[in-house]
Design goal:
This protein is of the alpha/beta class. Helix content is about 50%, strand content about 10%. It is flat, with a radius of gyration of 28 Å.
Length: about 400
């Protein structure tokens, strides 16, 4: 015969083995073993004895981590993949949680999922990954799940208030022109007028919220998002910050509303030291993180810092000194410029791009982190924590020699 037998309706005589189909080295089996080594008591404490039995948190965690490893961030898409994809079905042990259950898991366990990220970092370091010889720090803008058109400003709210008042007066004139014998409750325009009056009552509250926020523009869809400057203009979203080891393990991740990175250097270094229980030897970041006070503080701790100011950043990019720049006077600032002008120091700083920027490239281009699915600081922080945890696990999976030491 020219072709192999083909019959989609043919039943299996014996159930197929998932390992035979996917192969022993598939990432889902490694992810299963890794999660089984974690302490999930913080997740389990969120469930009581009453009510119907819930899906095991280990099941939901594995399914979500594998989803973020594939760039699936939608609970509805994940529900479909759990039914159709063999690896998801293996991790779910044949169960089929719906999108509401999957999304509720992310919502309920914000703090515990951040603890899972810490445990994965500790697991990686126990396997010899996550060296703190050089830690590179960077940030990026991630769009919020919000419309740029649904934004409140003082001028826009005042114009909207005047427009609604004109519409109310127009409806009142139309109602007054109706026949006198009609009942007031049956007049044409009574329901639209009530809706307009309700919208008019909301405007003072929205103006007060805008005043308290101190913002010129405030999103109505996601009030905690911010308009942040990016390379291609302004982005309505959040700032995602990460610290990455020299062997491409994410040591720290967080979401902020910061419009710039000046105040982020020391907190990120502190977080790395707290998670890893060890102080990094070298720290590098771009000029956006330069703040003299932070440089001095880290220098006192014995950390070798490589962060140029804006003038020296242009010097490094152009390959020649900037003419007419104001001289620096602080000794630590002078030392930083001298260090980055030295070929050895410049090589260490340039290594930063090869450490941290590919990680952001994978997260944004392959893992769906160009836009958050959920709204609010706490919820988007959970998304980034899941994406970073999944990235670290796949990083471990790719490090084949280290996996032989993992039972």
């Amino acid at each position: 015969m020219k072709y192999l037998t083909y019959n989609p309706e043919q039943a299996y005589l014996l159930p197929p083995s998932v390992r035979d189909v996917l192969g022993e080295d598939h990432v889902c089996f490694f992810l299963h073993r890794a999660v089984e080594r974690l302490d999930l008591s913080a997740l389990e404490q969120g469930y009581g004895e009453e009510g119907r039995p819930a899906y095991h948190p280990s099941l939901l965690l594995k399914v979500w981590l594998y989803a973020y490893a594939l760039g699936i961030t939608s609970s509805r898409r994940l529900e479909q993949r759990v039914r159709e994809d063999l690896a998801f079905r293996y991790l779910a042990a044949g169960a089929a949680p719906d999108f509401w259950t999957l999304n509720d898991f992310r919502r309920r366990h914000a703090q515990a999922l951040n603890g899972v990220f810490t445990q994965v970092v500790e697991l990686a370091r126990s396997l010899g990954i996550g060296r703190l010889g050089q830690v590179a720090i960077d940030s990026t803008r991630v769009a919020a799940n919000a419309s740029r058109d649904r934004v409140d400003t003082v001028g826009k709210l005042r114009a909207q208030r005047a427009k609604i008042r004109r519409q109310i007066r127009r409806w009142q004139k139309q109602c007054d022109a109706q026949a006198a014998e009609e009942a007031p409750g049956q007049r044409v325009g009574a329901a639209p007028m009530a809706a307009l009056e309700k919208r008019l009552e909301e405007i003072p509250r929205r103006l007060e919220q805008l005043r308290k926020s101190g913002l010129k523009r405030r999103s109505r869809t996601d009030p905690e998002s911010r308009f942040l400057r990016a390379r291609k203009g302004f982005v309505l979203g959040y700032t995602a910050e990460i610290a990455v080891s020299e062997d491409h393990l994410i040591l720290e991740q967080r979401v902020t509303q910061n419009a710039n990175d000046h105040a982020s250097l020391v907190p990120l270094v502190d977080a790395v030291e707290q998670r890893c229980g060890e102080r990094p030897e070298k720290v590098s970041a771009d000029s956006g993180f330069f703040k003299l006070q932070a440089i001095v503080e880290l220098g006192k701790r014995g950390i070798d810092v490589y962060v140029p100011d804006s003038v020296q950043a242009r010097e490094l990019n152009r390959g020649k000194r900037v003419q007419g720049a104001a001289p620096v006077r602080h000794p630590e600032h002078k030392r930083m410029r001298q260090k980055l002008r030295d070929p050895a120091g410049r090589a260490i700083y340039q290594r930063r791009k090869a450490i941290v920027e590919p990680v952001f490239g994978v997260l944004k281009e392959q893992r769906g982190m160009r836009q958050f699915r959920r709204r609010g600081m706490v919820k988007v922080a959970v998304e980034l924590a899941l994406a970073a945890t999944a990235f670290n696990l796949t990083r471990l999976w790719h490090t084949k020699p280290k996996l032989e030491r993992m039972p």
